[in-house]
Amino acid sequence: MRVRIIFLLKNKGGYVPFHHQYLLAQLIKGLIIQGGEKKYRDYTFYNFSGLKGQTKISRNGLHYYSSRITLVLSSQDQGFIDYLIRMLFTYEQIEVGNLLLIPETVEKEEMPEVGESTKFICISPLVLSAPSFNDASGKAFISPTSDQFSDMLYESTISRMEQSGDYTTEQLTSFYKFQLVPDRNYLNKIKEGQKKFARIYPLFDQDVKYEVRGYTLPFTLYAAPEVQQFVFACGLGSCTHKGFGMLDIANSDPSKRAVKYEVEGVKMREFQHQAPQPRQRQTQDNE
Length: 287
What we know:
Layout: E1 2-9, E2 15-16, H1 21-35, E3 46-48, E4 55-58, E5 61-64, E6 68-75, H2 78-88, E7 94-96, E8 99-109, E9 117-122, E10 126-127, H3 147-164, H4 169-174, E11 178-182, H5 184-192, E12 198-205, E13 208-215, E14 219-223, H6 225-234, E15 247-249, E16 258-260
Helix pairs in contact: 1-2
């Protein structure tokens, strides 16, 4: 299940660091803890985007100038999504970096149909492996065209699917087909323009700061439909609950498959409505 949480921006021109996933991860973790629901306290099968809206870049980071900002949140567990929404809407206002945000409304994105071959784009960077303390291996560059790149993503995906408890041993065994093929035209274009598709990003875990290498590129994934659905809902790679590895279908407009979403016990706020800004489709080659 995937929802778009729409916020009203109180202070136009406010800003967050360019990569602000760790701020959103802290916000979501705070909501989980504040709610006190034990079964979700250590839950990690969710994913989220960066904040989407009209932005300008400065030395301070991303400044937002649209009246509304969107956060995309995804999970296979509808109960978890509803739980977070309930907690979020208990607050009149939240702060993310320098931004003052008022939770306004929620939209649900209908799940697109996927087969055994799907072209995805990254709306947050892919991380191949979780970082370890005093270990720089998580920052090592691995070519997306190598078998190692695809193999590492396969291993993390099957491991997470197993940990979720939603799949039988027989199903997991049948998911042996898995191949990620990057868009070579995109990689060549990036190389010719002397731009980057792989960067080092900050990540925090239990107050410890780590650095990981993230990759942002379009690719085609060859895998069973169940695997495609899992990575669409829960992200691809490692550290997905920290805001990495969120995907969307290439050449697809998510706003066209979004409908209003109601959660029992939650009163959405009524403001003079303007259409929320469409999700940014850039692949961050211009960071």
